Amino acid sequence: MSFDISFFIEDNVAHPFPENEADFIKWLSNVAKEENKSISTLNYIFCSDDYLLDINIKYLGHDYYTDIITFPYKEGDELESDLYISLDRVKENAHDFMVTFDNELKRVMVHGLLHLMGYGDKSPDQSKIMREKEEHYIERFESFLKSQI
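Now predict its structure.
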């Protein structure tokens, strides 16, 4: 299984974990493995609210802020996608939900990955499963890293 996961910065935001990219790659790779999926290419693009709002309007016709937009290029068991994340929204959500920025960033990152794997969040039942999966994988972040040593 090949894991091509990259991180990019747009619109003058600061990289949220410049020293820990390898840790996040290991974590996301293990999430995919645990869900019996493989990653062809995932590009996480960190940006501002305004940058993501422009994408939301231009490509989805939605005139509102959001924390993540995914553009899947492959469906099925092999994942390929661009995932745009507003760091402004992550920061505000972390404050609103009274969690750390790091925790909320992990939640949003794995949320997008879970969507690519077919998990939804439109119904109450889907949302419950999505939240349980998010919490499970956030808690597993450190153990994924230790298992790779």
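Residues 101-116 form the longest helix (16 residues).
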